[in-house]
# Entry
Amino acid sequence: MQVTTAVLSPEESAAVYGVPLADRNIQPVWIEVENHEDRNYFLLSPGLDPNFFPASEAAEAFSGALSHDQQAELDRRFRSLAFHNPVHPGERVAGFVLTNLNEGAKLVQIDLVARERARTFSIFVAVPGFEADYKRSQVFKRADDPDAPVVNYTDDASFRAALEALPCCATNEDGSKHGDPLNLVIVGSLDDAFPALVRRGWSLTEQKWSGAIRHMISAALSGEPYVNAPVSDLYLFGRAQDLALQKARGDIHQRNHMRLWLSNMRYHDKPVWVGQVSRDIGIRLTWHSSTFTTHKIDPDVDEARTALTEDMTYSQNLAKFGLVAGVGTAPESAPRRNLTTDPYFTDGYRVVLVFDRMPTALSNIEVLPWVTPYRVVHATPGAKP
# Structure
């Protein structure tokens, strides 16, 4: 089987369909399947989006000001552009599945089924027209550069030592002050790690341009979510984060977010990303930001680290995880502070998440035998342990 896909921007979908689909929160995904096998295959549209739009429903959404003949023509156009099952042996079939709108990036999950057989493809696609912050660093091109100088670790003990030797924290631009703790390592690429994150609702962040700042202010005033809101810059390896992602919650005041830096390490030929993850729980005024506002983080940064690990176990692509030292202990009684003076406490470990392109069942995820964390529990006198 060979599969090709593309995700249309709002402008592209309007040009193809003749109506502004994005105004109805509809995004066409192009699927092309070449069947070189010996049986008929069927594309399962709910795999791309459980709430996908049938062509007839999407056409009906624009029927308000149309005559009967115009509506009939629009309905024919939508039906002719749709993907049509089955894909016979030796045949190529192409068409659109109408999904809910995503900006930034979309995980295109393609499930093809046949008698006693199934083929699955997970493809991470950047959406045209979105000014993601990763574009400034061209990080994905660097990650795929075969000539980049890297150290490839195939021994777990050596890899663990290299991770524990990393700095404790991100810094400000000149490196003179410590910021948030580097409590996260992701091992993977566009084939496995980033589809897993997008599958679990993590979104790319926008660059800090004027439109994004206006959108962020508007969302803050209205209380609406902004799943691609920019994040401030922190520094590691002499540069700002290569990539940032966030998982929006109820509104812009609440989100989980991470910053990632591509390292010069590889683990069994997979790119190694060093990062920080924390949970935002509000917005406050500060003199430490150019916009005079900042997100307030939950001081228990270990909770965000654990929540991400648990989240990724449901992503299908997490193969291994473990903990290494390196952040340094900061007890609740003597917390550290980040660059915007928010306090945080931690047990001092960073989590290592190793992804693989092939799905891994929950029961088969490997736990790396490095560190077993524990928290001190203050029991009631006389209580049984």
Summary: The chain has two domains: 2-126, 133-367. The CA atoms of residues 85 and 141 lie 35 Å apart.
